[in-house]
Design brief:
The protein is 36% helix and 16% strand. With 286 residues, it is an alpha/beta fold.
């Protein structure tokens, strides 16, 4: 089987570093990226956090912060592929675009459709106020224009099967012309479940010749999903944004052990890990 591109999602958007060991500062981000890089990750998916005491659980779109973090990660991991998060609620995308223009990521997340972002607690109450993660076509088109401008490959984030089907429509209508790369996000409570049985259907929905990966969110349920993705020829991703737990149920102390476990999953499926140079070719970045 083909080699596999491994992505590390280093930190996520809102996880509180006072509760979980997620990196925030440029130095922490670089250290965690190097640990994941040494374990086999060739792509780093990065969110930017506000800097300063008590602020690390909050996101920022300050280009200066983005630049400092990107430089630190690239210096720590020569040849690494930088993947920037772009998700925002509402029509104003100026913050993510400013960061893209400042750091020129090789890949940028492109949320391909809208989702009612919901979660219910055990007592039947909402975990947070119900919200719409809005990504109408006009917003997607604006992001795609910025990605073409900055030379970033769009990584189409798909939270359900309907959103996955929209990606083909973006290509067919000329909204985007280029290599298609899907990210099937599974495990968000109001989106697709982290169910390995869904993967053959999702892989079938991908346009022929496209690349795809899975973002598996959760705990023990995510590791069988990774194994199925590896068996079906998909690329692989994990990190502290997606899970805190290793296959044996123990809590990961950082991103490196999660990537080590993911590489073991790939090899159990008969696949070797792509180097950054190989990953660039596979993702049509080279």
């Amino acid at each position: 089987m083909s080699k596999v591109v491994v992505t590390c999602a280093l930190t996520g958007v809102l996880t509180d570093p006072r509760q979980h060991a997620v990196p925030v500062t440029p130095e922490q981000m670089a250290r965690e990226a190097r640990s994941a890089f040494d374990a086999g990750a060739s792509v780093m998916h990065v969110h930017f956090r506000q800097q300063g005491a008590g602020l690390g659980h909050l996101p920022t779109w300050d280009p200066a912060v983005a630049t400092e973090i990107a430089q630190a990660i690239r210096e720590a991991c020569p040849g690494v592929i930088f993947n920037q998060s772009t998700g925002v609620v509402g029509p104003d995308i100026s913050g993510p675009v400013a960061c893209m223009r400042a750091i020129r990521p090789e890949i940028a997340a492109c949320n391909a459709g809208s989702l009612n972002y919901l979660k219910v607690k055990g007592d039947g109450t909402w975990a947070w106020r119900p919200m719409l993660f809005d990504n109408p076509v006009e917003k997607v088109q604006a992001f795609l224009g910025a990605m073409v401008e900055t030379g970033a490959l769009p990584e189409f984030e798909c939270f359900d099967t309907g959103i996955a089907r929209c990606v083909e429509m973006y290509a067919r209508t000329g909204l985007y012309r280029g290599h298609l790369d899907y990210n099937f996000v599974m495990g968000v409570e109001s989106g697709m479940p982290a169910d390995p049985d869904l993967l053959p259907i999702l892989a079938k929905l991908a346009v022929p010749g496209a690349t795809w990966q899975v973002t598996a969110i959760g705990r023990a349920n995510v590791w069988p999903l990774h194994a199925r993705a590896a068996e079906l020829g998909g690329n692989l991703r994990t990190g502290l944004e997606d899970t805190f737990y290793l296959p044996d149920g123990s809590k990961a102390v950082g991103n490196g052990p999660l990537i080590e476990a993911l590489v073991a999953v790939a090899r159990a499926a008969g696949r070797e890990v792509a180097s950054p140079a190989e990953a660039r070719t596979m993702l049509h970045l080279a």
